[in-house]
Structure formats: structure tokens, C-alpha cells
Amino acid sequence: EPIKGHVTFNHVTLTYTKDDDSALKDICFDAPPGKVIGLIGSTGAGKTSITQLITRFYEPEIGEVLVDNRSVKDYNIKTLRKHIGFVLQEPFLFSTTIKENIAYGNPDVTDHQIMDAAKRAQAHEFIMNLPNGYETMLGERGMGLSGGQKQRIAIARAICINPSILVLDDATSAVDMETEFKIQKALKEVMQGRTSFIIAHRISSLKHADEILVLDEGQIVERGTHDELLNNDGQYKRIYDI
Ligand code: M5T
Ligand code: MG
Description:
Blueprint: E1 7-14, E2 24-31, E3 36-40, H1 47-54, E4 62-67, E5 70-71, H2 77-82, E6 84-88, H3 98-103, H4 111-120, H5 124-128, H6 147-161, E7 165-169, H7 177-191, E8 195-199, E9 211-216, E10 219-224, H8 226-232, H9 235-241
Helix pairs in contact: 4-6, 6-7
């Protein structure tokens, strides 16, 4: 049964360990299918934690997380995770071929689909310039590729999975401007028609989000579009003005 990617948080509180303060406190939002949600806030604010609840890596102490109006608890966890693609700051790559790295987690994918995904991820060109192309063996954790190249391999992998929900956790950090431009272009492509969560430190990658949630110490302290938030004269505007 296909998943549309409608994500809802109803009064979600998450506590990792009993003695600690809650990492998330009373989080409420609604992300209709295909919408782009931006998450911003200082380190430890709870951005990654929100995305980990969607995949059910953790379960909330209070409240519920819904996908397509159904509690994530009621899904077969493998089915649920098949519909969620992650592109992380430190992409996990394996010491196998580039082709296998793109196909990872998706054994049925064809060579044609792999190449198509790499093209859309702006990765095809650099792969073809390697002596062994798609058959190039990578070292441990992707050794032999630059950070930006690794990220584009991870984006190609997410495209192959064809997820309804996409999580980009700081996907364009620590790369030069030209590479960032290429990655942004690739991400725009992969976000089409998918409910996307963009976690960013730089506001530039969030400008076009349908809704931006500003987090601070586990709470949503502000929400709105880029323009709305700039008019607010709150935390978002202060980050923007830096
Ligand atoms: C929020 C704690 C973390 C912090 C709070 C993922 C994770 C987080 N935490 C745990 O105890 N265990 C975990 O597995 O929860 O952390 P976050 O959600 O990772 O914050 P962030 O993504 O906004 O921060 P950053 O640094 O990635 O910008 O108290 O210790
Ligand atoms: Mg994080």
C-alpha cells in the first residue's frame, strides 16, 4: 500500500533517559504530502530527534507521531522505513563499488535506474571521470571521494529508494560554494513530490520551505514561512542577521 507521506506530530514529548530533561517538549505540527518543512535551531535543540521519531528509531513518551493519519506504531517498521530516505551530513558509504553504494538497501534496482539517479544527483559526471566509473571500489567510509562527492552518492541512493518522506539532515555543510550549488540543485530535484524535512544551519537552504520550525531546547519557539519569520523580529531574524 503506497504511503503519501503526510506527517503529523501531536503533542510529542521525547525523553531519552529518565534522568535527563526532555529532548522534545510538546511538539505539534502537520506536514501534508509533498510539503517542505525546514528545521532550524542551535545545537542540541532537537532537530535530529524529530526526524528519528518519524522512522521510529525512538518512541515518544507522550503524544503520537502519525504517517498518513495512522500512528507509526501501527506500521510494519520495515515497510515504514522503506518509504523514508535520509541524507545525512556524514553519509555512510561502504568499501564496495560506487554502483553498490547507490543501490544499497534497494536490491531490485536496475543499472539504468542507478545511472539515472546519479544523473539527477549531479554525480554521474564525476563518476564517469573515474578510471573504473560505476565499478570504482571505494575505501573504508568512502575514502577516495571528497565530502561533496560522497553527499551526492548519498542523494543518488535516496533517489533510488523513491521515498515519500525525505530527511536532509545538514546535507550541504562543509562544501565549497560551487559544490553546494550542485548539491542544492540535486536536492531540489529529489524533493519534488516528497514530504521533505530540511535541517540546516544556514538559512539560505530553508528560504523556500512551506513552513519553518524554529527549535530551542526541545520546543518550537517560532514557526512560519521565511518572510513571516523575518517580520517576527524573533530568534529566526536574529540568526538571519548574523
Ligand atoms: C537533542 C539528546 C542530545 C540533546 C537532545 C539524537 C539524540 C539526541 N540526544 C540523545 O540523548 N540521544 C540521541 O540519540 O537530545 O538532540 P538533537 O536532536 O540531536 O539536536 P539537534 O539535531 O538539534 O543538534 P545538532 O547539534 O545536530 O544541530 O540534548 O544530547
Ligand atoms: Mg542534529
